[in-house]
Hints:
Bound molecules: N-(iminomethyl)-L-glutamic acid, fe (iii) ion
Number of domains: 2
Helix content: 25-40%
Oligomer: single chain
CATH superfamily of the largest domain: Metal-dependent hydrolases
Amino acid sequence: MTDSAFDICLINARLATLDGDAGYGLIDDGAIACRYGMIVFAGPMSALPPHALDADQVLDCGGALVTPALIDCHTHLVFGGNRAGEFEQRLEGVSYEDIARAGGGIASSVRATRAASEDELLASALPRARALMRDGVATLEIKSGYGLEHDTELRMLRVARRLGQVLGITVKTTFLAAHALPPEYADRPDDYITFICNELLPDAAAQGLVDAVDAFCERIAFTPEQTARVFETARALGLPVKLHADQLSDSGGGALAALFDGLSADHVEHTSQASVEAMAQRGTVAVLLPGAFLCLRETKLPPIEAFRRHRVPMAVATDANPGTSPLLSLRLAMALACIQFRLTPEEALRGATCHAARALGLNDRGRLVAGQRADLALWQVHEPAELCYWLAGDLLKQLVIAGHPLG
Length: 407
Ligand code: NIG
Ligand code: FE
């Protein structure tokens, strides 16, 4: 590197800055100048700071649309095996809940994940993470929850950390041991919660493996009271919480997440008006997961209009997992959020950038403004709405991570 003031300068770009609360913040003939991996300037080329064009690298975007790199704020990307067989069963009419009650579902991924070594889990997750990156993702959340016992839960979280290191992306880890009841604790859910609170979570946290704590609050998983016990432990350890809330029924999950100042309540199809209000009050993000909605052939739509009215930020994520959402494109999740939930393409883009950042407790990314991380996506489209309009195809031209163009 020379001693020029800028590491990289992007020129001839069409910027969707997402600055402010509404609109794409479009700037034609735009430029971005970066130093030390951060955006120093994002605006019209005519206002570029002096010497920006002397940057170590000048990248001519040729008119390409540039957005913040995408952020997938809800995934279960690390797991053993897959559940294509259950997919076939569901096509024959067996429900997700029936499969779970018969010992399949999450439990079958638990068996396969427990049987897999750390290297095997890493090797199987890598191509899935790369697929997400090919569609613009530079920040990724990954949950545990297919171990449900000490060693495998920690192994999953270590794999998540390693994925971030190997790929050079940001990975935020979420502890989800309260995902399902392991066979060792059959009929003893409260004892399992005690084990999580007294041993598993404190140990995982002490090893620096936990950025946030999640639970599956649902009639086929854990009650609000059991969930609250996990959240109390998280609070005592100084860890933020998020929640699989109100996916299949209304258990007051949105309000419960809000009560603990949760970063997010996720799924939220059955979330009540009272929960929406509680989320609005505490700043809890609603994370929409249209992939699971599609694959489970759900019909109950999340209360989008109420979220809008109460200004609850809506994020969009893949929920990439082997059961309910084998979806490896955040851009496709954005498209599905528009088609199924009638989000506007602008809402979907904010949902996969600035609002997703907030759902992860990150305030250093998700918009193209000075002071934010230079995680950028360059697209071969002109209109931002095209990001949601095309259902597949390689629209990504270039991913830039902390000011470094990839590949
Ligand atoms: O987000 N809802 C619970 N957890 C996952 C499904 C996990 C699975 O079926 O393996 C979800 O949809
Ligand atoms: Fe999930």
